């Protein structure tokens, strides 16, 4: 079992230029005349999570945006990994000035079917 868990932040042109100045290798996608999408997977990878596991839940070794069940992980294990990644990225918030948001509806308890939302959010 695997799936994307985090939304890609969308930033305005001023924030995009600031980030690009600090991180010239940063991937990005232009979504409008003044807005740019910054891949959440890149942010996760910069924090060292790509290919790492926490118990039986892990971050995919080829795409840091994807969380995987290595076999036997519970919903709680996946949520713990997700929250740990969010905290680690938030620790770098001073660096990025960005936060990770979940792609599923957090109001549901784990184990229920999640409602997919947009894969990006604006800051």
Written account of the structure:
The chain is of the alpha+beta class and 123 residues long. The chain contains four helices and eight strands, in the order ββαββαβββααβ. It has helices spanning 13-22, 40-46, 75-91, 93-96; strands at residues 2-4, 8-12, 29-30, 35-37, 53-54, 57-59, 66-69, 120-122. The longest helix is centred in the C-terminal third of the chain and has 17 residues, at 75-91. It is elongated and about 45 Å long. The model is unreliable at 105-123 (pLDDT under 50).
Give me the secondary-structure topology.
Layout: E1 2-4, E2 8-12, H1 13-22, E3 29-30, E4 35-37, H2 40-46, E5 53-54, E6 57-59, E7 66-69, H3 75-91, H4 93-96, E8 120-122
Parallel strand pairs: 2-8
Antiparallel strand pairs: 1-7, 2-4, 3-4, 5-6, 6-7
């Amino acid at each position: 079992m695997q799936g994307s868990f985090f939304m890609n932040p969308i930033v305005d042109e001023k924030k995009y230029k600031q980030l690009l100045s600090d991180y010239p290798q940063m991937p990005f996608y232009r979504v409008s005349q003044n807005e740019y999408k910054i891949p959440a997977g890149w942010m996760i990878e910069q924090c060292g999570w790509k290919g790492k596991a926490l118990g039986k839940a892990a971050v995919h070794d080829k795409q840091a945006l994807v969380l995987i069940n290595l076999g036997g992980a519970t919903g709680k294990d996946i949520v713990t990994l997700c929250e740990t990644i969010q905290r680690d990225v938030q620790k770098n918030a001073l660096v990025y000035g960005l936060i990770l948001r979940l792609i599923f509806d957090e109001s549901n308890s784990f184990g229920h079917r999640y409602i997919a939302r947009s894969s990006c959010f604006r800051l």
